[in-house]
Amino acid sequence: MNYETPLASEDAALVDDASIQPGRRRWLPIAAGAAIVLVVLALWLSMREKPAAGGDAPVQTIPAVTVISPGSSAVARTVNATGSLAARVEMPVGVVGEGGEVRQVLVQPGDWVRAGQTLAVIERSVQTEQARSLAAQIEVARADAKLAQAQLDRAKALVARGFISQADIDQRTATRDAAQARVNVAVAQLAEQRARNGRLDIRAPAAGLVLTRGVEPGQIVGAGSGVLFRMAKGGEMEMLAQVSEDDLATLRPGNSAMVKPVGGSEQFAGRVWQVSPVIDPQTRQGIARIAVSYNAAIRPGGFASAAIVSGSGQSAVLPESAVQSDDKGNYVYIVDGKNQVERRDIAVGQVSDAGVSVKSGLTGNERIVETAGAFLTPGQKVKPEFRKAQ
């Protein structure tokens, strides 16, 4: 009977195994697999963590960031503006004399002319005959004056003999003087007519460039005909730059500028020669007049942009990647003495190929995060890697 007991136990175990349902057998390998995954995950996490100085607490990996210390450099303060191009001194040319029919137009827009050069010729046949008539009247007056002088000379010779009284001498002297005066009047009338004839032609008031022409041969012109030609005195041009009220206060006559006409790639050096003393109450802008030398690419009436150097100053210059912005404005991240990220609000100045100048908020001696600032948060611990600003 002692040998029968173990056999009974083994039979019971077999009976129990057989009684296990098939569904429960399928869950056993799934549970085992889940346990293995949890063990592997725990091992991976333990490999990422390092023991703290105390021995138990884990710490996260500290990201490395590139920082720069730009210092302070001389930066030109530039005012950007747009405006129209025009002749610096525009001269409208019209009819000075009595006018008439235009016989010839001698210039075209774009021609250079000298002072007094004839631009258009007016028909003058009537005026020419009037001048000839006046010239003939001068000869008549001179003949009368010559005769009066001869009569006076003969009378003076007869006075000593008693044939002519002193009263006759006085009368003949007056006749001679009147004849000479008529000569002078005729000469003055002829000179006046010749001056009028000279004013018939339309002439350039000064040397310069012809901009427009508004007259054709055969046209009848007069004092009310308006402007027939427009000229730029000396060919000098200018840009009427529209500048905001704040920027206008920083400009002075003599400031240098670079003017770029729309549609072209060339830039032309200029200089501010006048700053508007008034502000437009509607646009809150004023005009800075920039004088530029003549160039065929500068066409009056065109549009242009200008960069005006209003001065210079010392400021930090940062690469554009270092400057961040949000609803509160522009800012950068700096790394403090504890190697923690700190936000610093700044005011941005001129943006150029060299970078972004900082008007306020930085001294330039801070450690400034150059890149990856968008992935950092204030107070975060970082590992700074210093790079000297170029």
TrEMBL record:
GO terms for cellular component: efflux pump complex. Residues 241-309 form the CusB-like beta-barrel domain. InterPro entries: Beta-barrel_RND_2, BSH_CzcB-like, RND_pump_MFP, YknX-like_C. Residues 99-226 form the CzcB-like barrel-sandwich hybrid domain. GO terms for molecular function: efflux transmembrane transporter activity. The chain crosses the membrane at residues 27-45. Keywords: Coiled coil, Membrane, Transmembrane, Transmembrane helix. Residues 317-383 form the YknX-like C-terminal permuted SH3-like domain. Residues 131-158 form a coiled coil. Belongs to the membrane fusion protein (MFP) (TC 8.A.1) family. This is Secretion protein HylD.
